[in-house]
Amino acid sequence: MGIWSTIKNTFNKKQTATFAFSSGNDIAEWTPKDYEKYAAETYLKNVIAYRCIDEMAKSVASVPWGVYEKTEKGKKKVRVYESDYLELIERPNPEESFTFLMLKWTAFLMMAGNSFLNRIKPLSGPSKDIPKELYILRPDRMTILKSNGFLSGFEYTVDQRKKTWKIDPITRQCDVLQFKTFNPIDDWWGAAVTESVAREVDISNEQTEWNKKLMENEGRPGMIFTVEGKLSPKSFEMMERSLKEKFSGSANAGRNILIEGAKAKVEPYGWSPVDLDFIEGGREVARKICNGYNVPPQLVGIPGDNKYSNYESALLHFYQNPVLFYLNFYKNEINNWIYPRGSKLYYDYVLDNVPALAPLRTTLWDRAQKSNFLTLNEKRTMVGYDEKDGFDVALFPGNMVPVDQLIGNIDDVEKEEEKRLNEALKRLKDKGFSEEEAYEYLGLKE
């Protein structure tokens, strides 16, 4: 049964609204059972869904992160290169890098709509409030605990062993952080992207199975065998077994059929592969799957989609929209969870060396370079660099003159020209020229 059938059966069941108003006892909200089906039918079985999830997870994970310190104005001031918080993202745990941690983080979120991050802190010491390790927990092993209608904790089960984390009722802090997508019908679990593309994934999987069966059956849906007379059960079973063993499968494609001991007529029925164009239909379903995951079809190798003029445009859209959304989502959630209130330090992703965003960086640098009204520090902040002392000045080209100074120069020139004209007219009049003749002599009209 496909994942769409699982979803449909789930929602066809009678739903009863349950409100938790217990007096302190936790009520378990179990992990949706559909997760295993989602993972099996998408990431492990459907090549298009796998590529979409893999492309998103690898793209998000490939962006580096750093630790920054805020100024009094709240702007990005200095990138910190020595900090216990920096060590946390450079080596989140002994077994995994931060890149692989981010890949799992995103893949779980897309497949299940939920992802859980666990932090490990020292039990004592001066840095007991600073996490030393981070781990991603599988969502299918997690149980949400609720009490009095509120989230009260998490319970993780592995091989019948359980680990429970409680949420502080005052600070609402916990050593497990749940990342979830918006779900309009569930307060506790996020909605998996796979739910919206479940039918398309099922159709794609069925098309693959159908084509495989056609190949196994010589590219035909079947044959009609007409035998004169009535076969005994033994003869019928022998003929059926012989056809299956000797003439079915891709290895026997095109093999002539020979039936011994019976007058039989063999003829095909239905259609041939020429009558069924599965290629374009499969591409259309693949495009719908890509649309559901918000991944441009060009990035997963599907031709025929003219939404983007080229691969670079599709890649730029991909990073500007879904990838940056996930990065901002992670940044805001993890900063609120890791750093204490009022801290000047914070995590942020670094886009300087992401090749897909090179056109945007070129445009941004060009704008910053041509903005003569900005100070050097404002330009540095604009392109993502730290501010520097003594750079709070704006530089202008040497041939540029302030407007008020320019107006003053024009007035002086006009006065000087008027003075020279009056002196020339006086000299001409002294020599006997009339005023009209003097103006005409100078090429001027009175």
Low-confidence stretches: 10-24
Separation of the first and last Cα atoms: 102 Å
Number of domains: 3
Query: What's the main sheet like?
Result: 4 strands, antiparallel
How many helical stretches? 14
Alpha carbon gyration radius: 37 Å
What is the 3D shape? flat
Mean pLDDT: 78
Quickly give the structural class: alpha+beta
* Strand and helix order: HEHHEEHHEEEEEEHHEHEHHEHHHH
Major beta sheet, strand line-up:
1-6-7-8
Percentage of residues assigned to helices: 40-55%
- SS strand fraction: 15-25%
Number of strands: 12
What report would you give on this structure?
There is one protein chain. The chain has 446 residues and is α+β, with helices and mostly antiparallel strands. It is built from 14 helices and 12 strands. Helix 1 crosses helix 7 and helix 3 packs parallel to helix 9. The chain is flat, with a radius of gyration of 37 Å. 19% of the residues are buried. About 3% of the residues have low confidence.
Outline:
It is built from 14 helices and 12 strands. It has 446 residues and is α+β, with helices and mostly antiparallel strands. The strands form 4 sheets. The protein has a 4-stranded antiparallel β-sheet, with no helix packed on it. A 3-stranded antiparallel β-sheet has the order 3-2-12. Strands 5-4-9 form a 3-stranded antiparallel β-sheet.
